[in-house]
Amino acid sequence: MSKAVVPISGGLDSSVILSIACKQHDEVYAITYNYGQKHNKEILCAGVQVDNFSSNIEEHKIIDMCHVFKDISFKSSLTNNDVPVAHAKDVLGDAQTVNYVPFRNMMMLSIACSYAESVGADTVYHGSALVDSQAGYWDGSIEFLENINNLTALNRKNRIQIKAPLIKASKKEIIIMGQHNKVNFKDTWTCYEGKEKACGYCTACSSRIQGFLDNKIKDPIEYERTDIPW
Question: Tell me, what DSSP letter sits at residue 54?
Fold first, then answer.
């Protein structure tokens, strides 16, 4: 029996990965992290996505890491309310923006691997897409994926492979995959701001908007930004 652990943030990319995993594995164990992010609306969206693909999801765990990241990642705009979220136009060429949360992916994937070993899963999914490494997130790169798999391969008994099926995919391609797998994009949250509507200006919103524009379809979520040429 094939088992996998899927970190599901409630964002567009992780929702598509969940849909992929549910097609490829008999049992899927979903895991969501509350790390004190401003955009904690995504946690609610994660629950909706799990419900959408509930037929072969065995469990959905929400891990509270709020105090950990609040204490140690105080320079990130995502975990410190006093640090403004960077807009795409302001960080062009920036090697690592304030929207980066230090070592977040490494810590979260370590937890996911621990969970996988406990439930007997040999696969953990990683939600990185092409735009992540382009935006300066080193822990979303192919090199990071290769090296963290080298580490998990040291396990003497339980070999767990970390897969990132979207790591070379553009946002346009990811949206097409999601449409094919019947992902409800209206119940996803990408924006880094913790507001009622997506801002439309942050780096996450910008790449999402461009993906929908490239597909010549309107994003079903609402934006504060009013000049998007749908």
Answer: G
> What Å distances lie between residue 181 and 124, 149, 154, 170, CA to CA?
20, 27, 34, 17
Token pair belonging to 111: 């937890």
Beta bridge partners of 162: 124
Q: What is the pLDDT of residues 108-158, one digit of tens each?
A: 999 999 999 999 999 999 999 999 887 778 999 999 999 999 999 999 999
What pTM was estimated for this model as a whole?
A: 0.94
DSSP state of 166: T
What 3-state DSSP class applies to 192?
Answer: coil
Helix and strand counts by DSSP (H, E) for the chain: 8, 5
pLDDT of residue 72: 86
Mean per-residue pLDDT of the chain: 94
Q: CA-CA distance, 76 to 69, in Å (whole number)? A: 9
SS3 content of the chain, % helix, strand, coil (to 5): 45, 15, 45
Give the Cα separation of 178 and 188 in Å (integer).
Answer: 11
Token pair of 209 as six digits: 């908007």
**Closest CA relative to residue 198, chosen from 108, 121, 85:** 85
Residue 93's pLDDT band (cuts 50, 70, 90): low
**DSSP code per residue over 60-127:** EEEEE-HHHHHHH-TT-TTT-TTSPPPBGGG-TT-SS-TT--TTHHHHHHHHHHHHHHHHT--EEE--
- Where residue 213 falls among pLDDT bands split at 50, 70, 90? very high
Q: To which residue do tokens 């992916």 refer?
A: 105
